[in-house]
Design brief:
five-stranded parallel sheet; 50% helix; alpha/beta; Rossmann fold; 2 domains; 169 residues
């Protein structure tokens, strides 16, 4: 059974591009540490994200975590997500985009993916048009709630080429 434990930014960005519904389509359980929920509800969150977080769907399970992130260079959500992933046995996947958090998770031997990994997995299952989803992640795209997601052009090229080649088969 695949359990995904999400940090704040992937949920934020998936909500903003209208693809948050991919998580329950790809994973059997989606866990959100309470510290992540707090960050999603923070007054600085985009309106769409705060609205989603204030009315969580049934598939999003909030998990209380008793961790103290003080003394860590990670923010509370990243720290709690990593701690929760370490505490669970079985098939878990950490969903995180922040480079420092990803490096710490990798150092601890935790399986990890990010927003692009979710979109790529969904594209492989024909649940999303990856070209459109990547375009919607572009922070320069005009819309009310913009993401701040950076995708290196070389990675965009790889994803689009991979998608094109898969469709040709």
């Amino acid at each position: 059974m695949t359990i995904v434990i999400s940090d704040t930014s992937p949920i934020n960005d998936l909500v903003l591009i209208g693809e948050i519904g991919l998580l329950p389509s790809l994973y059997q359980r989606v866990l959100i540490p309470d510290a992540v929920l707090s960050e999603l509800l923070d007054e600085g969150s985009p309106a769409a994200v705060a609205a989603w977080a204030s009315m969580l769907p049934d598939w999003a399970e909030v998990v209380l975590t008793a961790v103290d992130a003080s003394g860590s260079s990670l923010d509370a959500g990243e720290f709690a997500a990593i701690a929760l992933a370490e505490s669970l046995k079985g098939e878990t996947l950490l969903l995180m985009d922040d480079a420092e958090g990803r490096a710490e998770a990798t150092r601890r031997g935790l399986p990890i993916t990010g927003t692009l990994g979710v979109l790529r997995a969904a594209a492989h299952r024909q649940l999303v048009d990856i070209a459109s989803a990547v375009d919607r992640l572009d922070p320069a795209r005009p819309r009310l709630d913009r993401t701040n997601f950076y995708i290196p052009p070389r990675l965009v090229g790889f994803l689009l080429t991979e998608n094109r080649d898969r469709r040709r088969r």
